[in-house]
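Appendix B. Chain record.
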Amino acid sequence: MKALKTFVVVAGAALVVMLGIALVQTARVTSKQPPPEQAVQIAVDAEAAARHLAGAIRFPTVSYEDSAKVDYTAFADLHAYLERTYPRIHATLAREIVNGSSLLYTWTGRDATRDPVVLMGHLDVVPVVPGTEGRWTHPPFGGDIADGFIWGRGAADDKSSVIAVLEAVERLLGEGFQPSRTIYLAFGHDEEIGGEGGAQKIAEALAARGVTRYAFVIDEGGAVGKGLVPGIDRPTALVGIAEKGFVSLRLEVKGEGGHSSMPPRETTIGILARAVVKLEASPFPARLDGAARQMFDYLGPEMSFGLRLAMANLWLLRPLIERQMLGNPQTAALLRTTTAPTMFSAGVKSNVLAPDAWAVVNFRIKPGETVQSVTAAARAIVADDRVAISRFGSAKDPSPVSDVTSPAFGALTKTMRQVLPADVVISPMLVVGGTDAKYYSQRSPNVFRFLPIVVTSEDFRRFHGTDERIPVESLATSVRFFYQLVRNADRL
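Structure tokens predicted for this chain:
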């Protein structure tokens, strides 16, 4: 009894000490929010911008892995539409068509010694799943404006970026503005299939001219969220400072085939299925670090007390927080390299054994791991010589993490403070998908991914899905954002 009493006393004292440390740590947490800025009033013709985006949506610039399916005429028609819609830009900036369908505009600055800026977007969109057209409230390529939204494929991802940049530059030209540093407008045509023919070719073309350093690069990737972060009831502006890499692996099993009445102990489909199950059952390690940790460093001080206490005491509560995050696919993707079987093919008839079976598994690679390390891990998990594993399509290592202490990030957050609501919470984030910005990550330490459109959890389902749309006011805010960002870039 005496020993038990001593244990209870010691355990209680330890608990009190840990609680005290946790409260002190919480009290020490201070906000990382950028200082307030005076709001800049920028009049934007929101209706005209909406009409221009609606017009761009009507061109079905769909990208496919199979280039034979691509309607390149739609891209050419979109180029002509932009030329008609933005006459000042096409009279002042040098325009180039890169690799047939991508666009590069050069706005020459007054001072050639200053590092240039790249404003990015992409012209292509994903296909509409055949048979789902009737589920759309408005036709996917109708470009309808209704109920305060612009509707259609590409409204949010990502013709809105292209139109917002062009609207801002057209206005600045109308005011007689000329930047001190050169500004490139880079709009790829194949971002949705990796960007190798578009953004990569643009970056390579600029590098061939000796343009290998940039003050900053900004692309899509982050947005303004409402109701997305537990414990924060204010809008959150999330800026991508890094993005995951990717690799798809093809798993293939070859056999003899034959009649289904005399199956072998293990069929090609069974062997392949077990390999896929092994990969799903062996997820990569989860860890809250890097860009994802920086996000919580920024968001934690703005959360309610309970969550703020948890974020301030990862030394004690990290396992609990990581377990909670792993319960949600969106937050789980921040913690680990993800494993997603996406294709499976085998068999031609119900009573015929499949002689060949193959599947594709897609991995989104967390910073800290590589294409090579993920491929090696997948081989070790499958551990079956009957399953041939090879790379399927292109692959890319994760990007470096951009510097949130840089003057470029400061110019970006200053712009956000000037054009977004005063109560917005600004935070870096890890982009779990891919963007064209990855082709500039080795050429600038300041590569950011953000477009100030407002998204909710419902809106996430519309990206690449049915009823894609963007609020008219979000598009107007995006125009204001790029207008002010160009001006602020001059003061860097």
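Further analysis of this model is presented in Appendix C.
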